[in-house]
Design goal:
The chain has 327 residues and is an alpha+beta fold. It contains seven helices and 14 strands. It folds into three domains: 71 residues, Structural Genomics Hypothetical 15.5 Kd Protein In mrcA-pckA Intergenic Region, Chain A; 83 residues, Pseudouridine synthase (2-Layer Sandwich); 151 residues, Pseudouridine synthase (2-Layer Sandwich). 21% of the residues lie in helices and 27% in strands.
């Protein structure tokens, strides 16, 4: 069954963004809906001005002050994704959520010709149908994602209410995501904030890029943890305020300190004069970006208990660290 909600806007709402206005109005009528889900509905033509039947497809449409807005929520489609027994580490689990340690090389959700060998396939095998559906049939349970070749911690929602609450925590910057990356060079200053909008590259559609205008707001806080070989390489901690595609990789590359092993955002080999042959061989042959989601913190979506989790480096990055430490 399709759900429909008619929302009346008054002069007091004039000038408000469409998505913000609707999420506030719908919170009492359908509390499990997230702003992300609502934005998808807007952009897909499911939000209509009842007076003139015009589809309101822009989230930043400004309320005029005397409107009746119809929100259509289509029936949930049955997932046709194949459940598959793919191993992943569970760090925490209860009836509402999972915290997992995703291995490098595992894509988060189906797409781009990969329909069976993803984390979503593995989650469906493990959890069955007890996953949130807010992000649609292709991304059940996925609150946020990690790139295929980034390892580490992720949160997965088992129901829509938990999903909605966790997404709100991301939007309000309550949910904290911390990463460690081995990079070429050493940023100066040693800590700071990278505040550069990110959008898709017009030259290479597989890449994201920083933009002076347009794109989406993207903010990364960084702090150098250790310096190697007089500054040729550094270990950098990054904390996300936003979660854009490839954000840390794009931001570090944009300021001149790309991540070791990043085939997309680090072009060519860098000078490693002064490092041992073992170090040079390890770095030049590192097979993926040396980026690891090592720590995550949030409030439990139901109990509101403060929760913090951390995991060690994956084996390949741990080997890289040991070689660098040995010089």
């Amino acid at each position: 069954m399709i759900e429909q909600f008619v929302i009346k806007a008054s002069v007091d709402n004039k000038g408000q963004r469409l998505d913000k206005f609707l999420i506030n109005e719908l919170s009492a009528l359908k509390p499990e809906i997230s702003r992300n889900r609502l934005q998808i509905l807007i952009e897909s033509g499911q939000v209509i001005n009842s007076y003139n039947q015009a589809k309101l497809t822009s989230c930043d449409y400004k309320i005029k002050g005397d409107e009746e807005i119809l929100v259509i929520i289509p029936i949930a489609l049955e997932s046709k994704i194949i459940a598959k027994d793919i191993p992943f580490e569970i760090v925490f689990e209860d009836e509402n959520m999972l915290v997992i340690n995703k291995p490098a090389g595992l894509t988060t959700h189906p797409g781009n010709g990969n329909a069976q060998n993803t984390l979503v396939n593995a989650l469906l095998f493990y959890c069955g149908k007890t996953l949130s559906g807010i992000n649609g049939v292709m991304r059940p349970g996925i609150v946020h994602r990690l790139d295929k070749d980034t390892s580490g911690l992720m949160v997965v929602a088992k129901n829509d209410l938990a999903h909605c609450e966790l997404v709100k925590q991301i939007e309000q910057r309550i949910l904290k995501r911390n990463y460690l990356a081995f990079c070429y060079g050493t940023p100066k200053p040693l800590s700071g904030v990278i505040d550069k909008n990110i959008g898709r590259s017009k030259i290479n559609r597989l890449k994201m890029t920083t933009l002076k205008t347009g794109g989406r707001v993207a903010i990364t806080n960084y702090e150098v943890q250790k310096i190697y070989f007089g500054g040729l390489i550094s270990l950098i901690k990054c904390q996300l305020d936003t979660g854009r595609t490839h954000q840390i990789r794009v931001h570090l590359s944009a300021i001149g300190y790309p991540i070791i092993g990043d085939a997309i955002y680090c072009s060519g080999r860098r000078s490693l004069k002064g490092a041992s042959e073992k170090v040079i061989e390890m770095i030049n042959n590192f097979s993926r970006q040396a980026l690891h989601s090592y720590k995550i913190g949030f409030l439990h979506p139901v109990s509101k208990e403060e929760m913090n989790f951390s995991v060690d480096f994956s084996p390949d990055i741990d080997d890289l660290k040991n070689v660098l430490d040995a010089g």
